[in-house]
Amino acid sequence: xxxxxxxxxxxxxxxxxxxxxxxxxxxxxxxxxxxxxxxxxxxxxxxxxxxxxxxxxxxxxxxxxxxxxxxxxxxxxxxxxxxxxxxxxxxxxxxxxxxxxxxxxxxxxxxxxxxxxxxxxxxxxxxxxxxxxxxxxxxxxxxxxxxxxxxxxxxxxxxxxxxxxxxxxxxxxxxxxxxxxxxx
Length: 184
Known about the structure:
There is one protein chain. By secondary structure, the protein is α+β, with helices and mostly antiparallel strands. The protein folds into 2 domains: 2-25 and 106-182, Topoisomerase I, Chain A, domain 4; 34-101, Gyrase A, domain 2 (2-Layer Sandwich), CATH 3.30.1360. The chain contains 4 helices and 6 strands. A 4-stranded antiparallel beta sheet has the order 3-4-6-5, covered by helices on one side. Strands 1-2 form a two-stranded antiparallel sheet. Strand 1 and strand 2 (47-50) form a beta hairpin. Helix 1 runs antiparallel to helix 3 (107-144), helix 1 runs parallel beside helix 4 (149-182) and helix 3 runs antiparallel to helix 4 (149-182). 24% of the residues are buried.
């Protein structure tokens, strides 16, 4: 039973780290990446859809994202979604294609992005800690059900080790992304 709690806690923490990786992909670095726009929500025929389901995304140049829509009716809603996303670039429409030319980032903008990354990292660390807290409470309840105190202590130690492992992964991903943003 205790092992089930630990496995479930680890599974939830793994999902948090996975979600964090996805979030980081959407943060702009020095180079253009389709990940910056691929998950933008676009209002299309009354439904919100991710941009990647409405167009082909490529990066023909290091500072440019090319969006080729499959339906000419999607051009205006995509353009609007990009402007609302505030990614620091204005879309340029050419028929069924939209070019997003990313201006070079200033040192100040890079530092802003690093702050944004650190805030995001802290939010995800808090999510992991909340999972730990919830499962710690569940494991401690087992004391009342007559589980040996040694087993509960071992389980809590294991839970802490699992938590530390995923917090470290978040920290490592954050550090990696910061280096990527700060490199010119």
